[in-house]
């Protein structure tokens, strides 16, 4: 392909600017809408996974083989710090931290709420993530006191009508038949991005939780966040093999919450159907402009062929023109899509009314943060470029069908 | 006609006297646990697949409606106190230094992870007063002949059992086995008197084995010491008492 063809293709774009702009705009809008639909969808999924899985349940979880599904505190596992250090040192592991949890009744004056208490090792989990979740109060309370600090989900704190510094009475089933009982001082409230969690979770220091339930030296489960959380399912058996622990059950969140995974897959398939319809509509629009372009330039092709320009050269030129137009459209569409998703990433749209209630009842905050994954742009840019090139085959066929002499 | 009347009269008398016999049998069988005000030291051993736990406790009781139980070991649970006063159920935990009132429905629930229920520890319903009785004949339990008495709760008595089979020893008149059936007619709990002994002049079961319906664990209650306490009155069983006991 000579430089001449490239130069001619580029200049041809400018010969009928309106026509080029329409084609480019069709490409740009196709990409823009594809990015918007997909970013929103994937963003909501990762928001769901982050809040439901990442925050509280863990991407990969290690527990006693009998622990699930009853989550009975009697089926906790013996704390093994050497093993935990090995897990943290594993190249595929971002962080690993033990938890201990159980159920209890939390009482303040006349108000009582049933909740799940969870003992958390704040230093092992990284204080940053917990500071982000803090709605009010602070973590700067020394542990090991007689009165244990507790951080309640903000809705639970509201339901108990409690204020920071209040002393709550907690009663529940402890380890091996002992009742769990203790006085807890409200040190803070938490926003967890999951209304159901916020109305039932009480966070304690791990050591306090062990003392509270009588399960000293025990862990309920160990939560592992891999360096690549999206590969949890494949990574789980590998980690179990690399870091053996007796009587342990390794599970990734997809295995523990198949309903969430299936809901995402079903919804994602629906989104792909929507995209297919979008591409069909845009594809026929592009085909329309391409037919218009080819028929407008039929005389030009005829004359050029009569002057001795080879049809192959003309066909190359048409393909290049289509490529340039789609490239300009892709750049414009990507810039627009990225700008709008970035704006919504900073200011996520908040759902209101019944839709918000429906989302809350399913367990997550009614916000729609779009995904900022660059692969969404590259994938759909490639799709629209291929679509444009396919459509431009019409113009190529016109080049080959044009007679050398206009009759 | 006269013969028929005479026969009916005879039948009624026999049935009535039989009914009295059954009540008398049950009264004798319950004697140790219900008829005397007493204090008792006991050990409850709970054997589960993963662990064995021994709980020592001391109880004070009058009849089957007033009792107080304080745990003396293990150390973690010591001082934990349960009390039943009439239809009210209380718990005191020294760690929160507070007396909590528990719902009466908890009487039928498992006590501290064992096969024992709250009412096994804090006084059972009286078979004599709270149940209708039906004599079912003699059967052998563990090689010893026993009277089998089927008991169904009276309408106004709040118990979760649909019926109870009580096996009373022909030889010594004490109960040997109790089978508690739930509303699906499955055995929800079985108690066996494993050993009888004389405590303070009263013959009583001093070792009781219990099994739940799933049978994965075993619980044994052993009476270590039992003493009559005629000085105890119902006024002893007040919530403030729970905070004053030494474990």
**Poorly predicted residue ranges of chain B:** 7-19
**Strand arrangement, major sheet of chain B:** 6-5-4-3-2-1-13-12-11-10-9-8-7
Span between termini of chain A: 31 Å
Oligomer: heterodimer
User: If you consult CATH, what is the topology of chain B?
Assistant: outer membrane lipoprotein receptor (LolB), chain A
Radius of gyration of chain A from CA coordinates: 30 Å
Uncertain runs of chain A are none
Q: How big a fraction of the residues of chain A is strand?
A: 15-25%
Report the CATH superfamily of chain B: Lipoprotein localisation LolA/LolB/LppX
Which CATH first-tier class of chain B would you pick? Mainly Beta
- Which descriptor suits the 3D outline of chain A? elongated
**Distance separating the two termini of chain B:** 71 Å
Structural class determined from secondary elements of chain B: alpha+beta
Please summarize the sheet with the most strands of chain B.
13 strands, antiparallel
* Biggest sheet statistics of chain A: 6 strands, mixed, barrel
Domains of chain B, number: 1
Number of strands of chain A: 12
The helix/strand class of chain A is alpha+beta
Order of helices and strands of chain B: HEEEEEEHHEEEEEEEH
State which percent range the strand residues of chain B make up. over 45%
From the structure above, extract its key features.
heterodimer; A: 407 residues; alpha+beta; 2 domains; two-stranded antiparallel sheet; 15 helices; 20% strand; elongated; B: 247 residues; outer membrane lipoprotein receptor (LolB), chain A; 13-stranded antiparallel sheet; 19% helix; globular
Structure description:
The complex is a heterodimer of chains A (407) and B (247). In chain A, a hairpin with a 5-residue loop joins strand 7 and strand 8. In chain A, helix 2 (17-57) crosses helix 13 and helix 11 (258-296) packs parallel to helix 15. In chain A, 56% of the residues lie in helices and 20% in strands. Chain A folds into 2 domains: 3-53 and 260-401, no CATH class; 66-246, no CATH class. Chain A is elongated and about 100 Å long. Chain A is an alpha+beta fold and 407 residues long. Chain A has helices at residues 3-15, 17-57, 81-89, 122-125, 127-133, 154-159, 195-198, 206-213, 232-242, 253-256, 258-296, 298-306, 311-346, 353-361, 374-401, and strands spanning 60-64, 77-78, 93-108, 111-120, 134-137, 148-153, 167-173, 179-190, 201-205, 218-219, 221-226, 248-252. Chain B has 247 residues and is α+β, with helices and mostly antiparallel strands. Chain B has one domain: outer membrane lipoprotein receptor (LolB), chain A, CATH 2.50.20.10. Chain B is 19% helix and 47% strand. Chain B contains 4 helices and 13 strands. In chain B, a hairpin with a 5-residue loop joins strand 9 and strand 10. The model of chain B is unreliable at 7-19 (pLDDT under 50). The A-B interface holds A 74-75, 169, 171, 173, 176-179, 181-183, 214 and B 46, 48, 50-51, 53, 55, 76-77, 80, 91, 93, 95-96, 98, 100, 112-114.
């Amino acid at each position: 392909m000579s430089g001449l063809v490239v130069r001619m293709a580029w200049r041809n774009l400018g010969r009928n600017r309106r026509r080029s702009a329409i084609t480019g705009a069709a490409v740009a809008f196709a990409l823009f809408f594809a990015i918007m639909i997909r970013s929103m969808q994937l963003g909501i999924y990762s928001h769901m996974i982050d809040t439901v899985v990442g925050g509280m349940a863990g991407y990969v979880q290690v527990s006693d083989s009998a622990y699930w599904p009853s989550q009975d505190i009697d089926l906790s596992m013996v704390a093994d710090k050497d093993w935990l250090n090995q897990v943290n040192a594993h190249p595929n592991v971002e962080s690993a931290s033990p938890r201990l949890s159980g159920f209890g009744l939390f009482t303040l004056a006349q108000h009582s709420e049933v909740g799940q208490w969870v003992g958390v090792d704040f230093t092992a989990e990284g204080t940053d993530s917990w500071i982000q979740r803090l709605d009010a109060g602070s973590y700067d309370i020394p542990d090991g006191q007689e009165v244990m600090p507790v951080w309640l989900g903000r809705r639970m704190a509201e339901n108990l009508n409690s204020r920071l510094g209040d002393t709550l009475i907690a009663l529940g089933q402890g380890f091996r038949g002992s009742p769990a009982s203790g006085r807890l001082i409200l040190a803070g409230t938490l926003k967890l991005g999951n209304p159901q969690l916020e109305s039932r979770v009480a966070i304690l220091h791990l050591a306090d939780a062990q003392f509270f339930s009588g399960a000293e030296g025990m862990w309920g489960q160990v939560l592992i966040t891999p360096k690549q959380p999206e590969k949890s399912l494949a990574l789980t058996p590998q980690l179990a093999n690399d870091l053996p622990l007796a009587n342990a059950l390794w599970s990734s969140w997809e295995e523990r919450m198949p309903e969430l995974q299936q809901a995402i897959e079903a919804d994602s398939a629906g989104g792909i159907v929507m995209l297919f319809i979008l591409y069909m509509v845009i594809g026929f629009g592009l085909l329309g402009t391409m037919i218009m372009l080819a028929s407008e330039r039929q005389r030009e092709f005829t004359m050029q062929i009569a002057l001795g320009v080879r049809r192959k050269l003309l066909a190359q030129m048409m393909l290049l023109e289509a490529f340039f137009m789609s490239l300009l459209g892709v750049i414009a569409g990507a810039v627009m899509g990225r700008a709008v998703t970035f704006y919504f990433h900073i200011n996520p749209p908040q759902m209101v009314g019944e839709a918000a209630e429906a989302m809350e009842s399913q367990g997550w905050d009614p916000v729609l943060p779009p995904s900022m994954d660059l692969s969404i742009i590259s994938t759909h840019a490639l799709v629209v470029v291929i679509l444009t090139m396919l459509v431009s085959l019409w113009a190529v066929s016109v080049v080959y069908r044009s007679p050398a002499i206009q009759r | 006609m006269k013969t028929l009347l005479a026969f009916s009269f005879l039948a009624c008398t026999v049935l009535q006297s039989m009914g009295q016999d059954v009540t008398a049998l049950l009264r004798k069988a319950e004697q140790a646990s219900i008829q005397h005000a007493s204090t008792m030291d006991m050990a409850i051993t709970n054997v589960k697949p993963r662990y064995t736990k021994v709980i020592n406790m001391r109880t004070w009781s009058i009849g089957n409606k007033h009792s107080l139980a304080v745990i003396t070991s293990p150390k973690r649970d010591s001082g934990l106190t349960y009390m039943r006063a009439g239809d009210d159920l209380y718990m005191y935990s020294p760690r929160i230094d507070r007396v909590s009132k528990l719902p009466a429905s908890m009487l039928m629930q498992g006590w501290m992870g064992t096969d024992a229920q709250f009412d096994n520890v804090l006084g059972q319903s009286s078979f004599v007063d709270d149940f209708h009785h039906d004599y079912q004949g003699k059967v052998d339990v563990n090689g010893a002949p026993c009277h089998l008495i089927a008991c169904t709760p009276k309408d106004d008595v709040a118990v979760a059992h649909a019926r109870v089979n009580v096996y009373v020893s022909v030889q010594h008149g004490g109960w040997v086995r109790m089978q508690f059936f739930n509303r699906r007619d499955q055995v929800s709990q079985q108690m066996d008197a494993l050993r009888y002994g004389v405590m303070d002049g009263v013959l009583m079961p001093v070792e009781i084995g219990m099994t739940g319906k799933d049978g994965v664990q075993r619980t044994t209650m052993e009476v270590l010491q039992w003493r009559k306490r005629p000085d105890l009155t119902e006024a002893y069983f007040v919530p403030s008492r729970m905070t004053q006991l030494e474990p």
